Amino acid sequence: MKKWSCVTVVVSLMMVLSLTGLAIAAEGSKKITLTKENPISINAEEKSVSILCAVNGKYFLQPTRHCTIFDGGKFADKAIFRSFVNQLDFYDTLMKVGLNAGNNMTLENTEATHVQGDLLDVAVTWDGANKDYTLDEVIIDSNGKPIVMRFGGNYETAKEKNTGCLLCLDSCPVGIISNETYTYGAVEKRNEVGFKGNKDVLPPDGTLVMLTIKRK
Amino acid sequence: VVLRLGGYCEGAIPTVRVGGSDWRVGQVMNKTQTPGIAQRISLGPAWPMILKAGFVGLLIGYMLALWLSQWVWLEMRLNVGSTIPGSVVILMLLALWKRIAIPCSLMLILEMTLVVSFAVIYGWRWDALPLVFACLLREGCHVGLLRTDMVNVMLGFVLIVGNRF
To answer: Which of A19, A23, A77 minimises the CB distance to B133?
Structure first.
């Protein structure tokens, strides 16, 4: 009896000790201006839109097809970046800066169609970062292919499904922006590719980051 | 009167309070000593047994979540972390209802299996351990914005307390 108690205490102590990994903040010059109360902004001069998100460390370790999802959406836990901006507000803001949506994806053609729409640059930065990082730097494509983001649109489907999807990593009929490189199902059905957050570049889980989207 | 007891580790001899007297398990009552069927039988505080069952539920839930999260199709659609609070609640209710006896060795076996499962899935990457366990629990409890270090502190406390039951 005592033997079992000792062993269980030792096991639990080992597990607790291994659970104490704490984050070390990066030291750089970048500073983000957005807050949870004010999570979206427009830069009229650059015609860019910035949104506030939090890093989800879960996807440093396992693959996902979701880049950014609204905190209130059905799939909020499934993305590398959890956004504080609603997908519909995000769409409206992108339209305000004059971007053109592809709107070529439907729920029927999804596995055979690559997303269209304006080609976009997505930059990621956070407090203490050394620079604005590209999506290719912060997200690892298991095939090493570049991430090509386009403004897909999909306002009605996004509203109806309410998954909260803002940026998807394969062409998506629901996400507002998605990656042209792969068609839908590449990650979860056909196992063509897996995407993970780059833990060597991104800050620790829970850190607030700013994504800035503008036309390429 | 047949009393089924559970939730105690081997070695302990529980006593039962029946009609104002303490009875050791195994001690035989005759008809005159046995209270009426409507007599309330007090088994003493049940919470250690229920909490122990909850802890076993946590370990089983983690095991399920860990393996289910490797199925990408499912992981992208369902909250696999919900197996953790789900198992905790189910085991606690079962303990309350059926008074299941949970041997201490079962907890140890489950903990060892969990560590081995983690090692099989992620390799011996101990840096990944806090992230994986915290993220699964966080997702299961729908508190996605809670930082993993906070979750880990709570989890550490639960691990130590859970192993003392």
So the answer is: A19
E strand or H helix at B59: helix B47-68
B141, two tokens: 């409890």
This prediction has a pTM of 0.80
Least confident of A11-25, A79-93, B108-122: A11-25
Residues of A in contact with B122 (CB under 8 A): 61
B130 in A contact zone (CB under 8 Å): yes
Q: How far apart are the C-alpha atoms of B121 and B103, rounded to whole Å?
A: 28
Beta bridge mates, A121: A214
pLDDT category at A7 given cuts 50, 70, 90 is: low
CA dist., res. B117 & res. B22, Å (int): 45
Task: State pLDDT tens for residues A88-108.
Answer: 999 999 999 999 999 999 999
Number of Cβ within a 10 Å radius of residue A4: 17
Residues A127 and A210 sit within 8 Å (Cβ to Cβ) = no
Q: Could you report the per-residue pLDDT of B44-58, keeping only the tens digit for each?
A: 556 778 888 899 999
Residue closest to B76 by CA, chosen among A67, A198, A125: A67
- Strand ranges for B40-94 from DSSP E: 41-42
Radius of gyration of chain B (CA): 20
Rounded CA-CA distance A27/A126 in Å is 11
**Partner-chain contact B105 A23, CB within 8 Å:** no
Query: B130 to chain A: nearest residue by CA?
Result: A19
